[in-house]
From TrEMBL:
<keyword id="KW-1133">Transmembrane helix</keyword>
<dbReference type="Pfam" id="PF00001">
    <property type="entry name" value="7tm_1"/>
</dbReference>
<feature type="region of interest" description="Disordered">
    <location>
        <begin position="114"/>
        <end position="134"/>
    </location>
</feature>
<keyword id="KW-1003">Cell membrane</keyword>
<protein>
    <submittedName>
        <fullName>5HT6R protein</fullName>
    </submittedName>
</protein>
<feature type="transmembrane region" description="Helical">
    <location>
        <begin position="27"/>
        <end position="48"/>
    </location>
</feature>
<keyword id="KW-0675">Receptor</keyword>
<dbReference type="GO" id="GO:0043410">
    <property type="term" value="P:positive regulation of MAPK cascade"/>
</dbReference>
<dbReference type="InterPro" id="IPR000276">
    <property type="entry name" value="GPCR_Rhodpsn"/>
</dbReference>
<feature type="transmembrane region" description="Helical">
    <location>
        <begin position="68"/>
        <end position="87"/>
    </location>
</feature>
<dbReference type="GO" id="GO:0071880">
    <property type="term" value="P:adenylate cyclase-activating adrenergic receptor signaling pathway"/>
</dbReference>
<keyword id="KW-0807">Transducer</keyword>
<keyword id="KW-0297">G-protein coupled receptor</keyword>
<keyword id="KW-0472">Membrane</keyword>
<feature type="domain" description="G-protein coupled receptors family 1 profile">
    <location>
        <begin position="1"/>
        <end position="84"/>
    </location>
</feature>
<keyword id="KW-0812">Transmembrane</keyword>
<dbReference type="InterPro" id="IPR017452">
    <property type="entry name" value="GPCR_Rhodpsn_7TM"/>
</dbReference>
């Protein structure tokens, strides 16, 4: 009694490897973007919070220095809209559809009704009456 041997499928193996590699690249890029965002957050806000605790304990922090650290934290909020388009192609593409300065000439701006219909997963529907439903 012999068990039939299935021929090896190098195409399926290569396809799986390619998809895994593509997924790995996307995950790495997402991790890099998240790491940069969190790193910027800590660089901007950690000095503020440490100084805030020091001010509560000893009261030795000058007001001007405290203001500078507060504005450093505010600058972090300014950096987020710059970081996202630099590292995320999908974000860039989505913003390009809605900002007039980034839109290609051949691309019309989608209307609010089109967006609403696309987001609600509904399209034009045939008219229905209670008689047809029952």
């Amino acid at each position: 009694l012999q068990v039939p041997h299935a021929p090896s499928q190098p195409l399926a193996s290569n396809e799986n490897r390619r998809l895994t590699n593509k997924h790995s690249k996307k995950a790495l890029k997402a991790s890099l973007t998240l790491g940069i965002l969190l790193g910027m957050f800590f660089v901007a806000w950690l000095p503020f919070f440490v100084t805030n605790v020091a001010q509560a304990v000893c009261g030795c922090v000058p007001a001007g220095f405290f203001d500078v650290l507060t504005w450093l934290g505010y600058c972090n909020s300014t950096m987020n809209p710059i970081i996202y388009p630099l590292f995320m192609r999908d974000f860039k593409r989505a913003m390009g559809k809605f900002l007039p300065c980034c839109r290609r000439p051949a691309e019309p701006r989608p209307s609010a009704i089109t967006l609403s219909m696309r987001n609600s997963h509904s399209g034009p529907r045939a008219p229905t009456s209670l008689k047809n439903v029952l």
